[in-house]
Amino acid sequence: MKQRFQMDAQYCRTLFLLVIIFSFTRSVTQAYDYTDLEAYPLLSVECPKECVCPSSFPHAIYCDNKGLKQVPLIPARTWYLYLQNNLIESLNEESFANATELKWINLNRNKLTNKNISKNLLKNLKSLLYLYLDDNDLEEVPAPLPESIEQIRLSRNKISKVPEGVFIKLGNLTLLDLHHNQLTDSSFQADVFNGLNSLMQLNLAKNSLKKMPPGLPLNTVQLYLDNNNIEEIPKNYFSGIPRITFIQLNYNKLSDTGVPDNVFNVSSILDLQLSYNELTSVPIVNGHLERLHLDHNKIKNINETISCPEAVKEEFDPHFPQAPRLRYLRLDGNDIQPPIPLDLMICFRLLQTVVI
Asked: How far is CA 345 from the centre of its chain?
């Protein structure tokens, strides 16, 4: 009897625990289901029939590669919108009326023109950070743009015009990509980049520029100007850009007369690319420069044209050699014959790679 009583008591305790666990599990499940509605806001009834709204990416809508000619109604609380690789010709406010939280729009490889973008559509997307409009039919930089924007990609369009004041309120913009368009020197006014206080990367490669762009923003770090027709650089052009680090001027028409003596003698420049130009001598560089591309120019003799930069002292390691910091040098495609000149190796003692 005593044994049976103990078994009954144990059974009751087990049953009681199961009831508690079931109740707790049910309450947690209910709480999770309620939370789930918040975490996964794009329900099947909201998702446009032309698109995919995966539950694993609750704020994203994938409408790419669907042959769309117009943008469907975008539901509220959408953050990421993928519309690339379609046939979209226009953007209207109706499609984006509820999409007030959009942060990212990819419209690459469509058929958009400026006249078919509703005037204030982009400006009214006040949370927008990234706008991708590569490979469309735009003829000018779209405007007005939202003040929140951080990156704009407009490569491979037909842009030949930059509207006056288009960037004036874009203080958050860090990247502007306009490469492979139809920009000329007349496309830019003197104050065209005013307002771009945070811009770090500017890409104007593969255009039709003959002059350097005017008034670069002070915080520019990377500058891409490859494949233009630039013949000269103004004196002290880079001295007013204290953070400039990376410069690409490959495939231009720069000659010795178009490169002032100390234009590249700037301590912030670490990577300088001047391949495929018309230089006959090595330009003066700063001792902080680490990578220099001079291949495919008209340089014949290094010893007679090189100017050894001042040695750079390593602040954090007093035992590190005091010497110019150049580690990589390309000279191939010139008229220079091996061996590597002794003066070059004596000057740049930290060189690790020389292509000649």
From this structure: 36
The matching CATH number, chosen from 3.40.190.10, 3.80.10.10, 3.40.50.2300, 3.40.50.720, for 55-137 is 3.80.10.10
Note whether 244 and 269 are within 8 A (CB): yes
CB 121 within 8 A of CB 142: no
Among 134, 132, 137, 157, which residue's Cα sits nearest to residue 80?
A: 132
Q: Which residue reads 């204290």 in tokens? A: 242
Nearest one of 178, 99, 188 to 142, comparing CA atoms: 178
Amino acid at 77: R
Between CA 122 and CA 91 the distance in angstroms is 9
Residue 213 in contact with residue 184, Cβ under 8 Å?
no
CA of 243: how far to CAs of 163, 218, 246, 266, 337, in Å? 27, 7, 9, 10, 36
Report the pLDDT value the prediction gives residue 304, as an integer from 0 to 100: 60
Which residue shows structure tokens 């309450």? 27
Per-residue exposure over 230-266, b if at least 16 CB sit within 10 Å of its own CB, e if not: bbbbeeebbeebeebbbbbbbbbebbbebbbebbbbb
Q: Are 131 and 149 in contact (CB under 8 A)?
A: yes
**Are 48 and 66 spatial neighbours (Cβ–Cβ below 8 Å)?**
no
User: Which residues have a Cβ under 8 Å from the Cβ of 126 and sit 6 or more positions away?
Assistant: 100, 146, 147, 148
pLDDT at res. 356: 87
Distance CA 177, CA 187 (A): 15
The answer to whether 108 and 81 are in contact (CB under 8 A) is no
Mean per-residue pLDDT for 195-220? Answer: 97
Name 260's Cβ contacts closer than 8 Å, sequence gap at least 6. Answer: 233, 234, 235, 236
231, 254 contact by CB (below 8 A): yes
Convert the pLDDT of each residue in 54-92 to its tens digit.
999 999 999 999 999 999 999 998 999 999 999 999 999
pLDDT exceeds 60 at position 2: no
- State yes or no: pLDDT of 183 exceeds 90: yes
Q: Tell me: the pLDDT tens digits for 229-285?
A: 999 999 999 998 999 999 999 999 999 999 999 999 999 999 999 999 999 999 999
